[in-house]
Amino acid sequence: xxDRFPPGTAVRTYRHDPPHHTRLxxxxxxxxxxxxxxxxxxxxxxxxxxxxxxxxxxxxxxxRFAARDLWGEGxxxxxxDLWESYxxxxxxxxxxxx
Amino acid sequence: MxxxxxxxxxxxxxxxxxxLLEEKGVLSGARLDEIIDASLSGASPANGARVVAxxxxxxxxxxxxxxxxxxxxxxxxxxxxxxxxxxxVENTRTTHNVIVCTLCSCYPLRLLGPSPSWYKSEAYRSxxxxxxxxxxxxxxxxxxxxxxxxxxxxxxxxxxxxLPRRPEGTDGxxxxxxxxxxxxxxxxGTAAV
Amino acid sequence: MARINDVGxxxxxxxxxxxxxxxxxxxxxxxxxxxxxxxxxxxGIFNTNEFRDAIExxxxxxxxxxxxxxxxxxxxxxxxxxxxxxxxxELDD
Lengths: 98, 193, 93
Description:
Chain A has about 100 residues and is mainly beta.
């Protein structure tokens, strides 16, 4: 399968707030980041947690976020491993490494 | 709940559950003992330390380790048969890495041994992504102002380990001696070495 | 909807207790709970994601007032009841 988001792609996490298990922490919802690299596909945790055995397999991406983009302050970066369906391409400025 | 009374109560309930499961044929006590032994056997920070010492002395291994951690540690006999991916992240003069799992407590058990209580605590998990420099200072790690810090939040299947910087003045040491310098906290990123 | 385990950036949990653990488990029952989880997972009674979901779904006050391995035990009980391996209340003293 070809990865939807190659390394270096600017992405944004969905403002996702489901009532079920998910692995997109609140602090990183609706935030802009940059793809570092793919981590390898796995069953989507959100569905697998429901024990139905039909979880889709999706690519997982390491995505790097600037603390400033997460919390409005801070000089550090946070990298999260996120399933593809948590992400969309960030159509705005993709040029600069934050 | 805390304290001996609470412990005794939980211990009783755990035993009761084991008995129930055995009565129902779900699980035998012997199988459970086997699994308890297997869970921790061989899991130790000495493993991670060996990987680090090899990376410090063998530049080609270091390159392989950073490119594909899972494959590289398998060369040393670790993580065979594991479905998890290992990613090793290196500290440099200008960058420092620290690992967390904010959502639960994911941890590279095979290479680091059992995780410390602080790693599993709400205090560490809540604060290290938000103020890593302050958290590191509480661990005694003071970094220059121009050091870039990256916090790796293990939110999926990959497990992370830090490759600390080789200390100054260790040129004459062999791999075994170098491995002995590496602490478990350094592999998480809460110590320099 | 926010769950109590999702603590990244949360304020107020205070200083980190860095003291070294003398042993990985403070009591034998903790090791047995880890074994139980691993054994039940290996048998396909539940998967890791279901297990995490059960811990996270605990009422916040319960999550914050129970120890790490006690949460594991409570999650196992919840899952076993949900899956009909044990009857609700069958485990209670």
